[in-house]
Fold these 2 entries.
Entry 1:
Amino acid sequence: MKSAYVYIFSAFLCLGSVLAVSAEDAAADHAVQPKQADTITMTDPFVHMKNPDKYYITKGSTYTNVTELLASLPEEATGLNQDHVSFRIDKQLIGEYFYHVKAYDSESHVMKGNYFVAKDDSCVWRLQDNTAAVLIYGNAEKLIQKAEVVIYPERIPLGSYGIVRVHVPGMLPYDIKVSSLNSSVAKLSDKMNIIPIAAGKTDIVVDLKIGTAMRTFTTAVSIVDTADKPEKNRPSPQTTIGIGIGWGSGWYHHGGGIGIGWGGW
């Protein structure tokens, strides 16, 4: 009788082990697997278009100048093997300053390069997926003269704040340092917002650096009582300068807004 009980107990243990293993297997089968990163292969739209001349510069002096400039640059800079490469130049200028050029393999039609070429040939930038654009030719001395710094509003109510905006053709990366010449009237936050301290006036100084080129902008702002400024004109709390990586010594780096192969680029 005792042996029968031992046999039955052993059978239950075995069954429990089987059920436990089955449950683990089922859980493993239904576990959420890591999602593979989607890869997007950009291909040449030119080969499927009926009227490519409507959208691209395909001939003439501009086409020759731009393509010869890119072709003259080292492969280490452009990332291009010049064999079997076709260049596509958008007709619409970026920021009224850059020709947007994409390079495709003329056999596979896969995109091999993405560039901004200044219309005055002063600089060429290589646009890279998920990383900041890189200056591969020339300098940004002329480009930085096209940049604008906007401070909004010029009359900042106490209890609100002001914002700094930098506009660079092509939304290319830049470094920035912002300071107030009268910190008892207004100071700068960690996110480069202008924080009112007391009613009065001060100058906001913005040092801008693109590549090795530098330029300083100075804008006067007034700090006013809230009664002097309508509520509807206060800047939105969600609006900031969008500073990226800190470079120390008051300098901050903004990575720009480059996206490879995006519609209007």
Note: The longest helix spans residues 2-30.
Entry 2:
Amino acid sequence: MNYLSLSEVINSEQYIIASYPSKNQDNEFLEDRFLFRRSNLSKPDAIEALEEYFCFYKNQTVSNRTYSYRYGRIENRMKLINENIKFSVEVEALYTLTSMIFDDPVYISPVLINKNTGQICNFSREDMDVVYRIYKDWFRRMRKDGFSSISWPLKNSNYMWLGENSVEDIETLISKEM
């Protein structure tokens, strides 16, 4: 991979490290989405960088990634803490990829929910296989269109991110260009 790697394993947990060529070197405390937006990647390179997130498919190591206060609603963050909800590196990858399609933070959290069962499916192999298939098909369509008309990856699917149902018309918040 050219842009992504994994941190060292600490207490059986790790996270994804993004490294994008940047116009500004003062990036050490910025979230990946901000680093990506400030990078000087060409559009083809940016698409390649986004595609690298799919390399973490089936990595069910618990992620110790923390997201800034701007990600997720307070009640979602409290649910994550109080119920000790964990997410895997493969969920982190899809969540980060999803965050890249927005100009501003969207108040969803890195917890995938199966809408049919109402259950969290962050570590369900069957559900994660379906969600990755949905994302890969979405990515293929977006690439074919040159990412000129970005849509919501989970639209009309049986899955959603925690908090997604609280965001009014999420597709209107998607960036118009990459």
Note: Residues 125-144 form the longest helix (20 residues).
